[in-house]
What we know:
The chain is an alpha+beta fold and 110 residues long. 39% of the residues lie in helices and 26% in strands.
Amino acid sequence: MYIYKDLVTDEACEKSKNKILRKLRMHAGMVDVYLICLANGFDNFDIYDSACLKQKAFPRDTIYLVGLAKGKESALQLSIDLYLSLSQKWDTLLIKQVFEKQKAELFRRY
């Protein structure tokens, strides 16, 4: 798993960000925690429930974690806000392509 250096969280996950990351590393189950990751397909972001990481078939090595949210609605809103802020910051709508070009600088292995 790779984590974005400027990991984005909602208000509910801000205080317990390190605890959530530690639990993700240990594959512990968490209730109502969602991961915002770079998509493997055509989309920009995928939203996964943290329980997906408990499955053995889930590809943990190819996950590029961009944000954490508590609740599905909060995860959707956070992904929209993240997309809008990054598109203004980088002056492009092709967010995924910028991430792909700069993976070494923007992400760290976890």
